[in-house]
Design the sequence.
């Protein structure tokens, strides 16, 4: 009821003419910054009806995923090329698909204010999922744009003690003048999530029938009722991130002085000075009121500090400063050199059973048996990049970074790619080939970690990552193919006991992803297929084959009396991957780790849906996991964590222009 009231209030605030039929491709231009924060890459705002029914961001962005079930629970892509294996471990990695971060910020320039209101609801009173999303962006003048994005997601969970609450907020702005430009993003994330440890045994799902899914016993206990909620194990995450890049261009220094030529004509590349600042700050609290339950179940390796309860907390922040000299030409041609300085801090607290004070204060240093390590780290690095387009057909990109001093001293990253663009009248072809070579020291917490249930202290070698990639896109045939081959040495993985280990030999991964959109009359079939092969599945376990297929019949109804048009789509979505030893999940670390207990997969997930668009309003009605009672009830993507069973869900999105 509170969400409905909020929606009514928000609608009353939008004094907009929502009946205007505007061409959004001309009204709005939106983009993301590339990985180097140099180029503005077009990233259209999604107002399509196709795919609107896929409301879970993890399923929307990945072909196959491992997830604990409902919204805002930990999730990881099963496609290796989607994973960021060089990212620092900060306990929140599995939650980032639901968070607003610096990397997923979209910037805009609008001739008219743009607003979007989305509401999604599903399930019954006991297992309700609900999402409210508000987005607004407007230009202050030709160059300056400001916007905000707020999302609140809540899920009570299909099973006992699976409740999550996720609130995220973003303010963003951009200024795109000829002499000065800037991009700024400020993000807030707050996630509260129960941990139920999974069902006590898979047979309670596969071989037993319960009247209510909330009655199915889970490893961790607590009270989970509609109006009374007190879990024994839970996690609280608070994250703040800030990013800004300020750029000053000196076009006139290299402009033509010949008055017979066009004013401001640029002869050569002109210089730009840029300053980049980013801050990522996270607090994580993990509480287990009775850690002996997990210890007796063999989940925890031990209880080291407090036998009565676990209260672990991590405070992490990373501050990055970069100064850049760039020479900019037309059509994103550029080359640059920059120098950066990073500060990284880790603070961990573990509450003792004899005092209310922290047992261990992990700030500048901490002590373990025969070890003393610094936890305030720094890095100094030098980077350079080059991008050039020849004859509007051949594009070359090169980038390199070398760490001069600090924690990652001696690390480096080299990447490069060549792209051929062939533009025909009705057929655009893109062929791209690239390679990268990286030697990077693993994140600090992979080597030094202290909590009530896990302690490790190990020296790790640099991880070597070599990658070849190839991409082919045929726009007229609506076909794309991406192939990646990796050679990995000293790869970090979590073993069957959930400890981080290094595989000190070379491991290879082949990943091929194909996309094809078929259309016959009014029938559409959008298919994404992935094939993967791993040389050492005991270290890295992935499904050999995964499929995501969306199929629907499309028809537009015309109403002659009113001139109205109603676009409808009715169809089904199918998810499938072959069986493999899918990951298990460790609640206290919030990581997915290797297991050899049971193979999962070889189970299709079928959703049916109806999508409708009337003017600027999109609506969907779908039934998720329609086949949950048809086959063997082996619907697990993570060991002991069943997927949600079948239930109804609906949602709408209202877009405004004024």
Sequence:
């Amino acid at each position: 009821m509170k969400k409905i009231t909020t929606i009514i209030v928000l609608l009353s605030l939008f004094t907009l003419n929502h009946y205007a039929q505007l061409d959004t491709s001309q009204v709005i231009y939106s983009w993301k910054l590339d990985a180097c924060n140099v180029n503005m890459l077009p990233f259209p705002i999604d107002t399509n009806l196709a795919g609107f029914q896929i409301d879970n961001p993890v399923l929307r962005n990945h072909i196959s995923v491992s997830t604990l079930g409902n919204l805002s629970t930990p999730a990881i892509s099963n496609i290796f090329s989607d994973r960021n294996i060089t990212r620092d471990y900060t306990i929140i990695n599995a939650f980032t698909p639901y968070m607003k971060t610096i990397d997923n910020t979209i910037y805009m320039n609008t001739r008219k204010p743009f607003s979007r209101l989305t509401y999604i609801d599903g399930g019954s009173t006991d297992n309700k999922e609900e999402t409210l999303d508000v987005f607004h962006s407007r230009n202050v003048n030709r160059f300056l744009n400001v916007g905000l994005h707020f999302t609140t997601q809540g899920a009570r969970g299909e099973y006992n003690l699976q409740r999550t609450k996720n609130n995220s907020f973003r303010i963003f702005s951009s200024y795109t003048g000829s002499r000065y430009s800037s991009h700024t993003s400020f993000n807030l994330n707050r996630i509260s999530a129960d941990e139920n440890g999974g069902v006590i045994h898979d047979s309670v799902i596969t071989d037993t029938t319960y009247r209510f899914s909330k009655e199915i016993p889970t490893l961790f206990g607590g009270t989970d009722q509609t109006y009374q909620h007190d879990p024994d194990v839970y996690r609280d995450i608070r994250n703040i991130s800030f990013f800004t890049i300020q750029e000053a261009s000196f076009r006139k220094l290299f402009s033509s002085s010949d008055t017979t030529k066009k004013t401001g004509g640029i002869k050569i590349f002109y210089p730009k000075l840029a300053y980049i600042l980013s801050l990522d700050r996270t607090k994580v609290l993990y509480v287990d009121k009775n850690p002996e339950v997990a210890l007796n179940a063999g989940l925890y390796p031990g209880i080291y500090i407090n036998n009565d309860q676990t209260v672990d907390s991590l405070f992490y922040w990373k501050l990055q400063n970069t100064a850049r000299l760039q020479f900019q030409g037309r059509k994103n041609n550029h080359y640059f050199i920059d120098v950066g300085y990073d500060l990284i801090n880790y603070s961990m607290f573990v509450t003792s059973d004899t005092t209310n004070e922290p047992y261990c204060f992990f700030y500048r240093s901490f002590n373990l048996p025969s070890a003393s390590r610094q936890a305030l780290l720094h890095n100094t690095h030098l980077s350079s990049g080059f991008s050039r387009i020849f004859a509007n057909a051949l594009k070359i990109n090169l980038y390199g970074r070398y760490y001069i001093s600090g924690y990652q001293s001696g690390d480096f990253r080299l990447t490069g790619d060549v792209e051929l663009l062939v533009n025909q009248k009705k057929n655009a072809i893109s062929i791209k080939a690239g390679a990268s070579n990286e030697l990077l020291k693993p994140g600090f917490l992979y080597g030094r970690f202290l909590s009530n249930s896990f302690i490790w202290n190990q020296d790790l070698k640099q991880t070597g990552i070599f990658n070849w990639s190839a991409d082919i896109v045929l726009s007229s045939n609506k076909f794309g193919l991406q192939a990646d081959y990796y050679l990995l040495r000293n790869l970090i993985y979590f073993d069957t006991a959930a400890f981080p280990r290094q595989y000190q030999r070379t491991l290879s991964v082949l990943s091929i992803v194909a996309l094809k959109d078929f259309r016959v009359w009014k029938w559409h079939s959008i298919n994404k297929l992935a094939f993967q092969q791993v040389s050492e599945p005991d270290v890295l376990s992935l499904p050999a084959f995964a499929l995501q297929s969306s199929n629907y019949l499309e028809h537009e109804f015309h109403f002659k009396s009113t001139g109205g048009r109603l676009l409808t789509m009715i169809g089904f979505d199918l998810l499938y991957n072959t069986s493999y030893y899918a990951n298990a999940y460790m609640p206290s670390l919030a990581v997915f780790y290797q297991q050899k207990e049971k193979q999962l997969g070889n189970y299709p997930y079928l959703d049916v849906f109806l999508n409708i668009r009337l003017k600027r309003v999109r609506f969907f009605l779908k039934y998720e996991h329609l086949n949950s009672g048809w086959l063997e009830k082996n619907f697990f993507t993570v060991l002991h964590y069943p997927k949600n069973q079948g239930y109804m869900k609906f949602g709408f999105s209202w877009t405004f222009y004024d």
Summary: The helical segments are 2-13, 24-27, 57-61, 203-206, 292-296, 444-447. The CA atoms of residues 271 and 327 lie 4 Å apart.
